[in-house]
């Protein structure tokens, strides 16, 4: 299938960057904005001042707040926060075009159910051909045309190939994968681990501690990926190690910077009250704990992050508990 029309749902930083990718690749590009006045503002100013200030949006990107109109496309890229996917699917269902691809570009797990995003889409939007786009990709770097590689995953190989062709251009390079579950789990859990890394950096626990967290975090994500039917090779790829390293090493990450502020002693409520950007790891932390427990997967770092974020536990107590766990073989 030739993909000419690409619509992006959500005009946050990532949705806006994805619209730039599609337009630069020569696609007929529509960016769906929930609020009509914001669509008018962005259209008039040709920039998204709230989420990607200073980045010019070409005329080739059409802004709309009319969902049925936005759904007139061969590929529909979902770029709102993960917790809103179910609501989007329900709103889109009556208007969903026959064979359109749904590309999940959010990174998270549903808090109530512990479901992955493709599982929500399969139940709420059964006619959609579901794929996911994930990997190390700060929106601002993509918007500035800095070199970026991502994974596009789906079980329909021909569709994955079509999406790669439709979105690749210049410095933006997608790789294909058939491991939808692996790519999704890796992309969601890295946000929780980035909060953990931010906390240890904010508390001054040092680079050794962060490297240990990244490595042991990778071990626990691997267990969850395998339990969800994904493959361990995916963890060595862009959506796995690539995104984990990026997000756990840069204060440009909203998740890592939120963790840093927590590590410096601020409360979650204070931090969230001063931000308008999403840090998906906050909701994913409890979702991943629910999911891991239901599958009998041990995830001590995610459990610790969840207790600090949502149950009032202290960082020093959680670090002490992690360090005093029984000694074991690294590959167990
Ligand atoms: N920013 C990045 O660099 C980046 C890169 C890759 C993936 N992502 C993922 O993309 C998703 C969106 O992140 P972002 O960075 O664009 O967010 P953002 O913080 O820049 O923007 C917030 C977005 O949430 C939307 N929103 C707020 N309340 C909503 C509601 N009630 N219903 C529906 N939408 C609502 C806003 O319209 C806006 O699109 C997240 O899952 C994130 O993990 C972000
Ligand atoms: O800013 P973050 O922490 O949401 O990370 C953004 C992207 O997921 C990085 O790949």
UniProtKB/TrEMBL annotation:
<feature type="binding site">
    <location>
        <position position="254"/>
    </location>
    <ligand>
        <name>NADPH</name>
    </ligand>
</feature>
<feature type="binding site">
    <location>
        <position position="253"/>
    </location>
    <ligand>
        <name>sn-glycerol 3-phosphate</name>
    </ligand>
</feature>
<comment type="function">
    <text>Catalyzes the reduction of the glycolytic intermediate dihydroxyacetone phosphate (DHAP) to sn-glycerol 3-phosphate (G3P), the key precursor for phospholipid synthesis.</text>
</comment>
<protein>
    <recommendedName>
        <fullName>Glycerol-3-phosphate dehydrogenase [NAD(P)+]</fullName>
        <ecNumber>1.1.1.94</ecNumber>
    </recommendedName>
</protein>
<dbReference type="InterPro" id="IPR013328">
    <property type="entry name" value="6PGD_dom2"/>
</dbReference>
<dbReference type="InterPro" id="IPR006168">
    <property type="entry name" value="G3P_DH_NAD-dep"/>
</dbReference>
<feature type="binding site">
    <location>
        <position position="14"/>
    </location>
    <ligand>
        <name>NADPH</name>
    </ligand>
</feature>
<dbReference type="InterPro" id="IPR036291">
    <property type="entry name" value="NAD(P)-bd_dom_sf"/>
</dbReference>
<feature type="binding site">
    <location>
        <position position="254"/>
    </location>
    <ligand>
        <name>sn-glycerol 3-phosphate</name>
    </ligand>
</feature>
<keyword id="KW-0521">NADP</keyword>
<feature type="binding site">
    <location>
        <position position="107"/>
    </location>
    <ligand>
        <name>NADPH</name>
    </ligand>
</feature>
<feature type="binding site">
    <location>
        <position position="280"/>
    </location>
    <ligand>
        <name>NADPH</name>
    </ligand>
</feature>
<feature type="binding site">
    <location>
        <position position="137"/>
    </location>
    <ligand>
        <name>sn-glycerol 3-phosphate</name>
    </ligand>
</feature>
<feature type="domain" description="Glycerol-3-phosphate dehydrogenase NAD-dependent N-terminal">
    <location>
        <begin position="6"/>
        <end position="156"/>
    </location>
</feature>
<dbReference type="InterPro" id="IPR008927">
    <property type="entry name" value="6-PGluconate_DH-like_C_sf"/>
</dbReference>
<feature type="binding site">
    <location>
        <position position="107"/>
    </location>
    <ligand>
        <name>sn-glycerol 3-phosphate</name>
    </ligand>
</feature>
<feature type="domain" description="Glycerol-3-phosphate dehydrogenase NAD-dependent C-terminal">
    <location>
        <begin position="179"/>
        <end position="316"/>
    </location>
</feature>
<keyword id="KW-1208">Phospholipid metabolism</keyword>
<feature type="binding site">
    <location>
        <position position="34"/>
    </location>
    <ligand>
        <name>NADPH</name>
    </ligand>
</feature>
<feature type="binding site">
    <location>
        <position position="139"/>
    </location>
    <ligand>
        <name>NADPH</name>
    </ligand>
</feature>
<keyword id="KW-0444">Lipid biosynthesis</keyword>
<keyword id="KW-0443">Lipid metabolism</keyword>
<dbReference type="Pfam" id="PF01210">
    <property type="entry name" value="NAD_Gly3P_dh_N"/>
</dbReference>
<feature type="binding site">
    <location>
        <position position="190"/>
    </location>
    <ligand>
        <name>sn-glycerol 3-phosphate</name>
    </ligand>
</feature>
<feature type="binding site">
    <location>
        <position position="135"/>
    </location>
    <ligand>
        <name>sn-glycerol 3-phosphate</name>
    </ligand>
</feature>
<keyword id="KW-0520">NAD</keyword>
<dbReference type="Pfam" id="PF07479">
    <property type="entry name" value="NAD_Gly3P_dh_C"/>
</dbReference>
<keyword id="KW-0547">Nucleotide-binding</keyword>
<dbReference type="GO" id="GO:0047952">
    <property type="term" value="F:glycerol-3-phosphate dehydrogenase [NAD(P)+] activity"/>
</dbReference>
<feature type="active site" description="Proton acceptor">
    <location>
        <position position="190"/>
    </location>
</feature>
<feature type="binding site">
    <location>
        <position position="51"/>
    </location>
    <ligand>
        <name>NADPH</name>
    </ligand>
</feature>
<comment type="similarity">
    <text>Belongs to the NAD-dependent glycerol-3-phosphate dehydrogenase family.</text>
</comment>
<dbReference type="InterPro" id="IPR006109">
    <property type="entry name" value="G3P_DH_NAD-dep_C"/>
</dbReference>
<feature type="binding site">
    <location>
        <position position="243"/>
    </location>
    <ligand>
        <name>sn-glycerol 3-phosphate</name>
    </ligand>
</feature>
<keyword id="KW-0560">Oxidoreductase</keyword>
<feature type="binding site">
    <location>
        <position position="35"/>
    </location>
    <ligand>
        <name>NADPH</name>
    </ligand>
</feature>
<keyword id="KW-0594">Phospholipid biosynthesis</keyword>
<comment type="pathway">
    <text>Membrane lipid metabolism; glycerophospholipid metabolism.</text>
</comment>
<dbReference type="InterPro" id="IPR011128">
    <property type="entry name" value="G3P_DH_NAD-dep_N"/>
</dbReference>
<feature type="binding site">
    <location>
        <position position="255"/>
    </location>
    <ligand>
        <name>sn-glycerol 3-phosphate</name>
    </ligand>
</feature>
<keyword id="KW-0963">Cytoplasm</keyword>
<feature type="binding site">
    <location>
        <position position="278"/>
    </location>
    <ligand>
        <name>NADPH</name>
    </ligand>
</feature>
């Amino acid at each position: 299938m030739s993909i000419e029309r690409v619509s992006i749902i959500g005009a946050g930083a990532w949705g806006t960057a994805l619209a730039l990718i599609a337009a630069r690749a020569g696609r007929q590009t529509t960016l769906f904005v929930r609020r009509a006045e914001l669509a008018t503002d962005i259209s008039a100013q040709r920039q998204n001042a709230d989420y990607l200030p200073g980045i010019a949006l070409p005329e080739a990107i059409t802004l709309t707040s009319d969902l049925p109109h936005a759904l007139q496309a061969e590929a529909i890229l979902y770029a709102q926060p993960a917790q809103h996917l179910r609501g989007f699917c329900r709103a889109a269902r009556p208007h969903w075009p026959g064979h359109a691809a749904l590309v999940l570009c959010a990174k998270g797990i549903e808090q109530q159910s512990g479901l992955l995003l493709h599982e929500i889409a399969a139940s709420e939007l059964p006619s959609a051909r579901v794929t996911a786009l994930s990997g190390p990709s700060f929106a601002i770097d993509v918007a500035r045309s800095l070199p970026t590689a991502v994974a596009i995953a789906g079980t329909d190989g021909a569709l994955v190939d079509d999406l790669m062709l439709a979105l690749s251009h210049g410095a933006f390079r997608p790789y294909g994968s058939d491991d939808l579950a692996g790519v999704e789990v890796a992309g969601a859990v890295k946000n929780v681990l980035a909060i953990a890394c931010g906390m240890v950096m904010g508390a001054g626990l040092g680079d050794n501690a962060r490297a240990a967290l990244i490595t042991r975090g990778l071990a626990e994500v691997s267990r969850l990926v395998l339990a969800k039917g994904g493959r361990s090779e995916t963890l060595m790829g862009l959506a796995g190690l690539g995104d984990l390293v990026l997000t756990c090493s840069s204060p440009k990450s909203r998740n890592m910077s939120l963790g840093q502020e927590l590590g410096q002693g601020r409360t979650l409520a204070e931090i969230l009250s001063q931000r308008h950007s999403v840090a998906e790891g906050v909701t994913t932390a409890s979702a991943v704990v629910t999911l891991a427990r239901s599958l009998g997967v041990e995830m001590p770092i995610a459990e610790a992050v969840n207790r600090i974020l949502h149950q009032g536990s202290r960082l020093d107590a959680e670090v002490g508990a992690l360090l005093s766990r029984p000694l074991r073989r690294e590959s167990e």
